[in-house]
Amino acid sequence: MDLIPAPIERYAYERTRKEPEPLPALATATSQMSGAGMLTGRVEGRFLCMLVRLMGAKRILELGTFTGYSALSMAEGLPDDGQLITCELDQTHADISRSWFAKSPHGRKIELRLGPALASIATLEGSFDLAFIDADKENYPAYYQACLGKLRSGGLLVIDNTLWSGKVLSPSEPSAQAIDSLNRVIERDDRVENVLLTVRDGVHLVRKR
Ligand SMILES: C[S@@+](CC[C@H](N)C(=O)[O-])C[C@H]1O[C@@H](n2cnc3c(N)ncnc32)[C@H](O)[C@@H]1O
Questions:
Q1: C-alpha pair distances (Å), 208 with each of 2, 84, 191, 199
Q2: Quick check: bond before 171 cis, omega within 30?
Q3: Which residues contact 180 (CB under 8 A, 6 or more apart)?
Q4: Percentage of the chain surpassing pLDDT 90?
Q5: Rounded to the nearest whole angstrom, what is the distance from the C-alpha of residue 64 to the centroid of ligand 1?
Q6: Helix (H) or strand (E) holding 207
Q7: Quick check: pTM over 0.90?
Q8: In the chain, where does DSSP find H-type helix?
Q9: Given pLDDT bands bounded at 50, 70 and 90, which one contains residue 136?
Q10: Is 183 helix (H, G, I), strand (E, B) or coil?
Q11: Nearest to 72, CA basis, from 120, 27, 133
Q12: Residue 1 pLDDT class (50, 70, 90 cuts)
């Protein structure tokens, strides 16, 4: 299901200021790869960068690096002494993203942890201002609990693909079921306040009280 009519998506893309290099080159190179649709892209990337700046975030956790677009977008909003830890399972994705981090002045703020995200999270010390969840969808409920535990009070969880192309309306496969179940858990969770935005494929904003 197309959640947003293509001409409206195009208009929002064109009226959002162009992201700095190397992000456009990264997006173009990724468009030739399988799984290219996983990249967040300009509108969501600028949104993430703006959230980081508005919050004055200094420490960010990301699950699901892919080729590094969202990591670099968020790192851009961090101060010089800020830190972003990004977790990625796939060695090829890790190698590609590291090569892009090296081309950006913000790449030195990023540390990549290779391996299953849940195992990486368990090794992390200290708290985070913001966590962006964008790895495998079946683990979303577990990622939510693990990331919420690492977030400071007043911190923000940003969870991507929470409308899953509309499949949450009648979830019949495991990813849709996991996302729908998590959206329902969040709505009832007294530890947080939330809003599920219809940005791109659904962006769930969850603030820890
Ligand atoms: C949707 S993509 C991330 C897109 C990225 N945030 C961006 O904006 O370009 C999901 C990524 O999660 C990775 N992934 C899948 N399962 C994972 C796991 N268990 N732990 C960590 N990363 C995982 C995939 O290899 C893939 O690179």
A1: 31, 19, 6, 21
A2: no
A3: 164, 168, 171
A4: 99
A5: 3
A6: strand 203-208
A7: yes
A8: 6-14, 23-30, 42-55, 69-77, 91-101, 117-122, 140-150, 174-188
A9: very high
A10: helix
A11: 27
A12: confident
Structure token pair of residue 154: 């007043």
Asked whether 67 and 97 are in contact (CB, 8 A), the reply is yes
In testing the pocket of ligand 1, which one of 134, 162, 200 has its CB within 8 Å of the most ligand atoms? 134
Give the C-alpha distances (Å, rounded to integers) separating 203 from 3, 34, 45, 114, 158: 12, 23, 12, 25, 7
In short, whether 88's Cβ falls inside 6 Å of ligand 1 is yes
Instruction: State what percent of residues in the chain have pLDDT above 70.
Output: 100
Report how far ligand 1's centroid is from the alpha carbon of 166 (Å).
Answer: 20
